[in-house]
């Protein structure tokens, strides 16, 4: 029997293609029609695997979340939180267009829920009360999503004339964009380490 001209579709193949398309073209341009075109199939053929565009996007989020490391709680809650936060930010930095989807929360996303479950278990098993563990998880997510969605240094113009004479305390701000990756990394590290170091188990 001859092989089909187009490889058979699967949820994994569709999901992987969707992530690649979003990485390239952005979330706003993503559609089932464009996804089908990238796979060399017709749009209706996708609906045998996914009923809606939103289901595809949920699986894309889970694909990104799968790279997040929650194994550090075996070495204590501090290491667990730091490893989780750093790998979480790295996963979103690799796929920045997906960050707004991740910001919307777990919803029905299996990998997202599994990540939240492991983090909560890691905190509770190391002595945190369930309510405070929930608050800590939320605080870390706010830091990570904020870092992913709203980069700091790249938002400044590199035109020195903009600041000269008008904003005397920003006379070096035009240099920030060239150092954006380092500055944003260091700012994130300052924030997440300060958060973790400031936590104190208690009632």
UniProtKB/TrEMBL annotation:
Query: Which InterPro entries does the UniProt entry name for this protein?
Result: Homeodomain-like_sf, HTH-type_TetR-like_transc_reg, HTH_TetR, Repressor_TetR_C, Tet_transcr_reg_TetR, Tet_transcr_reg_TetR-rel_C_sf
Per the record, the GO terms for biological process are: negative regulation of DNA-templated transcription; response to antibiotic
Gene3D superfamilies per the record? Tetracycline Repressor, domain 2
Q: Which UniProt keywords apply?
A: DNA-binding, Repressor, Transcription, Transcription regulation
User: What superkingdom does the record give?
Assistant: Bacteria
Which residues are in the HTH tetR-type domain? 8-68
Q: Which PROSITE patterns match?
A: HTH_TETR_2 (PS50977)
Q: Name one GO molecular function term.
A: DNA-binding transcription factor activity
| DNA-binding region boundaries | 31-50
Looking up Pfam families in the UniProt record yields: TetR_C_1, TetR_N
According to UniProt, the name of this protein is Helix-turn-helix transcriptional regulator
What organism does the UniProt record list as the source?
Ornithinimicrobium ciconiae
């Amino acid at each position: 029997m001859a092989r089909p001209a187009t490889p058979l579709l699967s949820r994994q193949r569709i999901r992987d293609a969707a992530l690649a398309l979003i990485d390239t073209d952005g979330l706003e341009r993503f559609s089932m029609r464009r996804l089908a075109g990238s796979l060399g199939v017709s749009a209706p053929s996708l609906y045998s695997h996914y009923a809606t565009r939103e289901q595809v996007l949920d699986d894309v989020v889970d694909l990104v979340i799968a790279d997040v490391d929650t194994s550090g709680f075996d070495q204590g809650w501090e290491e667990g939180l730091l490893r989780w936060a750093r790998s979480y930010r790295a996963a979103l930095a690799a796929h920045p267009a997906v960050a707004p989807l991740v910001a919307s929360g777990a919803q029905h996303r299996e990998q997202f829920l599994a990540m939240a479950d492991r983090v909560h278990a890691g905190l509770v098993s190391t002595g945190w009360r369930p309510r405070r563990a929930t608050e800590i998880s939320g605080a870390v997510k706010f830091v990570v999503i904020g870092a992913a969605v709203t980069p700091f240094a790249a938002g400044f113009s590199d035109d020195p004339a903009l600041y000269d004479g008008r904003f005397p305390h920003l006379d070096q701000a035009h240099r920030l964009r060239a150092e954006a990756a380092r500055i944003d990394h260091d700012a994130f590290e300052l924030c997440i380490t300060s958060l973790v170091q400031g936590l104190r188990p208690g009632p």
